[in-house]
Amino acid sequence: MSDIATHLAVSQKVDIEGLDWELARTHGLTQQEVNSLLYFADVESQTVHYFLEVSRLKVSRDPELLTFLTMWNYEEYFHSYAITRLLTECGVKVPTASERAEEVRKNARFKAKFEDFGQGMIAWSMPKTFIGLWMFWGSLQECLTTQAYEELARNTSNPVLAELCKRIARQERRHFAYYFNQAKDKLEGQPWIQKFTRGIANLFYAPVGGGVKTDEEGARLVAELFPQDRIFEVMSYIEKRMAQLPGMEGLDCCTRWAAKIQPMLPESTRAKNVPAQFIAAA
User: Fold this and answer.
1) What is the dihedral of CA 73, 76, 77, 82, to 10 degrees?
2) Torsion on CA atoms 97, 80, 207, 195, rounded to nearest 10
3) Domain locations in the chain?
4) In this structure, are residues 183 and 245 in contact, taking their beta carbons and an 8 Å threshold?
5) Which end of the chain is less enclosed by CB atoms within 10 A, N or C?
6) Cα-flanking dihedrals φ and ψ of residue 267, to 5°?
7) pLDDT (tens digit, 0 to 9) for every residue of the chain, 282 residues total?
8) What is the number of helices (H) and of strands (E) in the chain?
9) For the chain, where are the E strands, in sequence order?
10) What SS3 string covers 6-52?
11) For residue 156, which phi and psi values (nearest 5 degrees)?
12) Cα–Cα distance between 251 and 82 in angstroms, integer?
């Protein structure tokens, strides 16, 4: 069975029918959990726009890639729907997933539009390089996304939130696996693509959502999920996973970002021990 066939065989919208909403209401949500879930819902709801932008590019017309993108878009949209349902059940007033997606997109910053233009230019001028970069970037972002959902599941006292996050994380892990395997294939034996991809990661890495959220919003969200020195543990784990890809040995873009954002953070979430080589960045 091919890689995409394996994914299609298990693809479905995240199951929320068996969740105990009464139990969710009884336990409620902390303000930090509400903040995280609102951010997640906003970013997940934007997948349809990322899909539309990429599907316009000639390089994305490969049937297998379009199949994956369609599946990915479908599953990610329902992540936003499920999160919105949980928030609503717990008494948080929030627009529907579709309404929220539209509102967030209206406020998309110049950075999002610039990213769309930039990826279009790379895809037009260097199509093979773009595909390698895009698969690498997808795996990098999905790796952090999975860690975020799993962290929330571990730390919440709300069993329904924990279960929902575990279910979403399982799908995010599949998305990561597809991007990672594709990146490995596209980067293997391609020193220029490796070098270009690594350079883009070093220059522009930030958690997903940067186009529709401010740098400060993204930094605070990640630091709330992974407070103090925990952020460096998680970023180091992601870099070790990505270092398994051709040409990515010693990658440190995630740790650099974590050090750089420290001055933006409240004292309570700021790291106590910034790695020595990144102290200047912090």
Assistant:
1) 160
2) -110
3) 19-278
4) yes
5) N
6) -55, -35
7) 457 777 777 888 899 989 999 999 999 999 999 999 999 988 887 776 677 777 777 766 777 778 888 888 889 889 999 999 999 999 998 876 566 666 666 655 545 555 666 777 777 788 889 889 989 999 999 999 999 999 999 999 999 999 999 999 999 999 999 999 999 999 999 999 999 999 999 999 999 876 667 788 889 999 999 999 999 999 999 999 999 999 999 999 999 999 999 999 999 999 998 887 777 666
8) 13, 0
9) none
10) HHHHHCCCCCCCCCCHHHHHHHCCCHHHHHHHHHHHHHHHCHHHHHH
11) -75, 150
12) 34
Structure token pair of residue 189: 């034996």
Structure tokens at 193: 């693509």
Distance CA 92, CA 76 (A): 21
Fold for the domain defined by 19-278? Ribonucleotide Reductase, subunit A (1.10.620)
Looking up tokens 């299609």, which residue turns up? 8
Q: For residue 68, give both structure tokens.
A: 């994956």
Angle between helices 63-89 and 159-187 (to 10 degrees): 160
Token pair for residue 81?
């729907």
